[in-house]
Amino acid sequence: xxxxxxxxxxxxxxxxYGTMLSTSRNPRWATPMSNFGxxxxxxxxxxxxxxxxxxxxxxxAFNFSGVVPIQRIPIPxxxxxxxxxxxxxQGVLAPYCETVEEVKEVVAAAKWRPLKGxxxxxxxxxxxxxxxxxxxxxxxxxxxxxxxxGIESVPAIxxxxxxxxxxxxxxIFVGPNDLSISLGIPDQYDHPDxxxxxxxxxxxxxAHHVPNLFHHQTVELSTxxxxxxxxxxxxxxxxxxxxxxxxxxxxRIKEVGAELEGVAAAKVGESRExx
Length: 275
Known about the structure:
Layout: H1 3-11, E1 16-21, H2 30-35, E2 40-44, H3 52-65, E3 68-72, H4 78-86, E4 91-94, H5 100-111, H6 117-126, H7 132-141, E5 146-150, H8 154-158, H9 160-163, E6 171-174, H10 176-182, H11 192-208, E7 212-216, H12 219-228, E8 232-237, H13 238-261
Parallel strand pairs: 1-2, 1-8, 2-3, 3-4, 4-5, 5-6, 6-7, 7-8
C-alpha cells in the first residue's frame, strides 16, 4: 500500500489500521510491522527526539515494506512538513492546530510541495497556479502525500468546521491526552464531556467527508470509537504494546514463580506513556 491507496481506501469507507512509533529507531522494525498487517505507522517527532538521518533510514525501510510511513512533525509549520516529505515520509500529521491559517500553511506544503511563499498562499486562497502543466506536475509529485491535521483542544473543535473548508485535508487526528486536559478532565476518557467532544468531531468531519483518527491506548476504547465512526484506526504505540505484552506474559510466569516461592505475585500496571 502507498499513501494514495491509503487515502482511497478510507475515503471509500474502508478501515485502515496503524500505530504510533515513539521510540523505535532501527529500520529492521519495518518488516515485523508489515507482518502484523498494519496499513500505516505514524513516526513521532513531536515528543520523541530523533535525528533527521535516522528518520530517513527508518522511512526508507517502511517505503519498501508496504506500510505507509507518516511523520508527526513537531509543530504545524511548512518547513517541518517539507523536511518530513523530503526525507521519505508519505504524509505528515501536524499536531495541535487551532486556526485556518495554520492548516493552510500545512496543507500547502503537503499538497503543493515545493511551492513556497506567495505562490503557496495563492493556490490555497484561489486555487490558481502558474499553468495547467504546473498543476499536473505537482499533483503527480504529491500524489502519495497524506495530510492529517491534529485537533487537540476546545478552541480547535470550536473552529473545526472552518478548518475543514480548507481543501486537501485527508484526516483529522484527536490526541486524547491533550484534548482531555483542554476539557479540564485529564485522562478521563469515559467522562461525558470527553465523549461529547469526540462525537462533535465525528459529526463535523462526517459532514465534510473527512475521516478521523482517535489515538487511544486500549482495545476497548479503540473498538468503541471504531463502531462510532473513527475508521482511520490509530491504536497504541510501540512502547505501549511492548510494555503490555511483557506485562501479560511475565505476569503469568511470575504467578507460577510466586506460587512456588509461597509469596504474593507482584502486579504491574498499564503503560503510562502519553504521546
